[in-house]
């Protein structure tokens, strides 16, 4: 096996390519991390937030539950406050509905404007049944989202609101 001498030109090429690649990686990594960090920071499906609502105080009548938590977007941390309408259904299961109207995102109110046993959206008169199902003939075309729920030490924990599939 013959040894090929490395020319001065080859040596410089290898060295500069290596150093250049290293520097490019050093510059690109923070940019990539910056771009994907908000996605990672949200924690996805498994994240639950503890509320001040005791589960044994829930009834069949929807109760407004406000809860706050810290949200980190890249280097910026902010306090987020969200709301859920929470009750126990006839099977004793906890139902926690998002108040965000599926028409244009206003906030719905239980029995607002005198609408008995319904959620009412004041923006364009949207109506939903107690289950969150949208009432046909009113602007919303989809049911209210439903939070995932857990109970810890007797207190309600809420996860991510997800679309409901109610016929
Ligand atoms: S935003 Fe609720 S009905 Fe339009």
TrEMBL record:
Record localization: Membrane
Chief location: membrane
Transmembrane region(s): 12-32
Membrane topology: Single-pass membrane protein
Keywords assigned by UniProt, alphabetized: 2Fe-2S, Disulfide bond, Iron, Iron-sulfur, Membrane, Metal-binding, Transmembrane, Transmembrane helix
Pfam families reported for this sequence: Rieske, TM_PetC
Rieske domain sequence ranges: 62-158
Name under which the protein is recorded: Menaquinone-cytochrome C reductase iron-sulfur subunit
Organism: Bacillus badius
């Amino acid at each position: 096996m013959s040894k090929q001498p490395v020319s001065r030109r080859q040596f410089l090429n290898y060295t500069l390519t290596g150093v250049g690649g290293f520097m490019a990686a050093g510059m690109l990594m923070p940019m990539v991390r910056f771009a994907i960090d908000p996605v990672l920071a949200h924690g996805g499906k498994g994240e639950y937030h503890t509320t001040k609502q005791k589960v044994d105080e829930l009834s069949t009548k929807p109760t407004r539950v406000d809860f706050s938590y810290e949200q980190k977007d890249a280097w910026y941390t902010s306090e987020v406050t969200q709301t859920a309408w929470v009750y126990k259904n006839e099977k004793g299961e906890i139902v926690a509905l998002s108040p965000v109207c599926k028409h244009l995102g206003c906030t719905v109110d239980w029995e607002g404007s005198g609408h008995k046993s319904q959620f009412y959206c004041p923006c364009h008169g949207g109506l939903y049944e107690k289950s969150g199902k949208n009432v046909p003939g009113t602007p919303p075309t989809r049911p209210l989202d439903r939070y995932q729920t857990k109970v810890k030490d007797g207190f309600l924990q809420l996860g991510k609101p997800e679309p409901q599939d109610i016929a």
